[in-house]
Amino acid sequence: MTIAFGSHDSHDSKQSRTARIWLQAAAAVSLAVASLLPASAPSTVRAAPDDVALTSTYVSTPPAIDGSLGFGEWNLANRVTFTNGFISTVNDGIRLYVLIDATGDTSDDPGDYFWLSFDKNRNGVIDANQDLNYGIEPSTGNMRYQYYLGPGQWTGLQPSTFSSRAKGFGCFFADGTLSFGVPFAFRFRCSRHRVWELAIDLAEIGAAAGGHARMGVRIGNANPATTDDVPANFSSSFSNLIDVSLAPTPYATLAPFAGASIGLEANAIELTQAVQDRTNSLPLVQGKTTAARVYAVTANVPFPQYVRYYLYGSQGGVDLPGSPLALAQNAPTVINRNQLNSTGNFMLPQTWTNGTVSFSSKAADSLGHVASSVPINKAFSSRSVPVMWIVPINTGTANAPVLVSNSEIASQESYMKAVYPLRDITFVQKDWTVIGPSSVNNAIADLNTYYNNVAFAWLLTVLFTGNQPYALPDQVYGFTPTGGGLSDPKWVGGQGRVARGFQGTSIEGTMAHEDNHNFDRSSSGTWGHHVPNGCGAAGPDPNWPYANSNVNEVGFNTRLPWTANTIVPNTFPDFMSYCQSGSTPTKWISPYRWTNLFNNFPSLAVSAQSTDVVKAIQDVYYISGQIHRDGTGSLQPILRQAGIPTPDIQKGDYAIQLIDASGNVLSTTSFFSTFLDDPEEPVNTAYFNFQIPVPIQTPGISSKPAASPRAVSALPAKVQLTKGTQVLAEIKASPNAPTVTINAPSAGQTISGTTTVKWTASDADGDALTFNMLYSPDNGKLWLPVAAGITPTQLAVNTDQLPGGSQAIFRVVATDGFNTTQVDSAPFTKQAGTPTVQILSPASSTLVSPGTLVQLDGQASDPGNADLPDSAYVWSEGDTIFGQGRTTTAVLTPGQHTLTLKATSGGQIGEASVSIFVGTKVYLPLTIR
Asked: Do residues 381 and 354 make contact, with C-beta atoms less than 8 angstroms apart?
């Protein structure tokens, strides 16, 4: 596991490391130990007991060398203690992993250091120019080694190494320095301290799995100035070094063939986040999970050879934590990119995916051959993180809901995060009650109505407080239990804010497919269209660069665990087609789509300041409806309330007209709509959604005077939807506005859980009424949307999804189709709500191979729709807490596991669990009787 508290390897104070012990001279020099210590801060040398030994355990998934102790990474029962902590080891077939856990060093000093000496031939004697001493180079902090020349004497530093290090300072669940207080309430006990994680190349120190290594360790603490030697005086005598029994590897390797050689391809490194070409021309996103494929090939013999792969990463000459990464496997004689094991595959540490990084690689075989690549520089660019609100669409009734499963929602969210060029997507899960029972056909209209209510609550808060209460969703997506998918893109006349879908032909990619339609915000659309020749998908993209609907480049599914299906062949269809691969994933993302989405997302972030938003707010009519292919159209009930007028859009044959009692046209909003002949997702209905300014300031619902009152003869008496001179639909203003009274909750009542809000409403004209509901925890400063477009006069509200407050109120907004009335409840007390928590991966009932690194990915939102920081997430199994943060990784023991993610907000805790099995499939022979 790799997630834990604490700051890790930093490079901002390299020049101040005056307590480092290393010389920068490249030539061999001879110095006494004392001269290597800072004269201004003499240290006290403390010796650990002599004749110490360690029995290393084998790990199929090695520790992440990142300066953070993941739960289960190290066998902490296997240790050698010293005054300030302990030393522990594990190994695999190519490296000895050494943990120096200095629990007593509680000061984060840049001058802290270590030595790690090895008796390379294990003869108990210091052999000149053979035995090694590792430590920290003072100006860069890079780990390098030097050769012993004799007792207390060394050469200068070697320019490179196959070994790596990471420096950390923090507290960790793994070693017990991070724990919960009592009771469990996300109150932590944290004992921050120094750790060093080291990965020492076995070949470099003359050792091998199943054999022995002999080492001495010095731990230097700058404040106070002390050192701990294990064993005593090891730099002067190798007679009592720590004997490390290396665990054997469970895998057999073939002896190398004489005459075999190893080489790296000209483009030796491929950096991919979902798809990439062999020249690494596709852009990379900062912070997104990234895989590196190293292309090594065996030559001169017909059989693959066992090879050690190394991947180096640096910035400004400073090694990144864990550099080089290492693994070992057979290098093929011919590389097939469609096979995972044709390349050495690394998952980059998170610290390697920021800014511009210099990458290089090496490959070493058992005959002593080493091939090196040319360094390449690759930039990781930041991209805004979109916010998506998820609404399950209930196609049943209030008493018998028909909803999609949570596992399908999680599957589609996980897929979208994997294929989109984004480091993350913030999913905010809502209850189906926000739009009430609906249908597949009405979902887009209902979601647009709900989005209006979301925007209205946001605007009210900005208007009254000047602060944005939550991030407005870039998309509101409705999951339907049947019915394929449908979007509302601007290039068909919609607003590009809502979509709905079931599995359809895209299976786990339906949401990614529909939202791609909407994210193309251009008026005519290109990359937001379907791909040509897409198995019947209509409305093809005129700029599609390929001759078929395939991705036309090899993809990489970075979600763990990596399996044979991790590689996505270039013959898989792009997810904007209707074709299917017949495998999982059913579709993937092409370079063309990756690039267009990458270029689009910076524009998604809200850049306007709150003061600018306030200036733009005025009285508007929220007017929405739909147009049908058969020439008919309809208008949804109209709301008049605060809003921001819809900017000018592409003109078309359709229009919304405000007309006064004398027949004068007060305003005209022209727009266009497009219908698509699509056998899978026919667009026979187009949706529109506008905020049109109220012509003059008049009595009624008003939160802010109109910015520029117009001199007109009368108020609008009706609203018409027209096409040319034809009136498709009309709503007339009746003389009387609705009246509403909220009956429950009552004044001073305390509510929690599911509470039924009740109201009475009437209209003197006998008009049908429609209601929206808002909630405020603080008597009208912060507003949150609750439900929209409902017709009953009561609503069961899951108040656990709302923030608490002692001056809470509900607001009911009623419309008779044109006239609008709003009323607030008496203040009541609402107990604190709980976060909504989801586990996106792994899916329930996943089968995981033993020793495999599993990625756990979660998502939570607080009752105020805010995203939660990593510190709010905790992963556990039973009473064992093993990770913190939205994402963590784990190597789990064989058997059944129930993993729980808890998230806290405002002192309240929400949780979700998933059960997976770690083991191997067993196929029993079929007996026919």
From this structure: no
CA–CA distance, 205 with 215 (Å, rounded to integer): 10
Crossing angle of the two packed helices 591-600 and 510-519, in degrees rounded to 10: 50
CATH for 274: 2.70.50.30
CB 346 within 8 A of CB 291: yes
The answer to whether the peptide bond before residue 183 is cis (omega within 30 degrees of 0) is: yes
8 A C-beta contact, residue 831 and residue 902: no
Whether pTM exceeds 0.85: yes
In a domain, 319, yes or no: yes
Residues 170 and 809: their CA atoms lie apart, in Å, by: 43
Q: Range of 51's domain?
A: 7-245
Domain-terminating residue out of 381, 400, 427: 381
CA-CA distance, 819 to 773, in Å (whole number)?
16
Mean of pLDDT values over 541-562: 95
Tell me: pLDDT of 714 over 80: no
Give a yes or no: residue 728 inside a domain. no
Q: What is the pLDDT of residue 20?
A: 28
pLDDT tens track for 362-399:
999 999 999 999 999 999 999 999 999 999 999 999 99
Higher pLDDT among residues 832 and 891, named by residue = 832
Is 672 contained in some domain? yes
Closest by CA position to 109, among listed 203, 193, 202: 193
* 604: confidence class by pLDDT, cuts 50, 70, 90: very low
Tokens of 887: 């994402």
DSSP string, 102-133: ETT--S--TT-EEEEEE-TT-SSS--TTTSEE
**HEC profile for 711-740?**
CCCCCEEEEEEEECCEEEEEEECCCCCCEE
Q: Both 370 and 429 in a single domain? A: no
Average pLDDT, the chain: 88
Separation of alpha carbons 340 and 293, rounded Å:
9
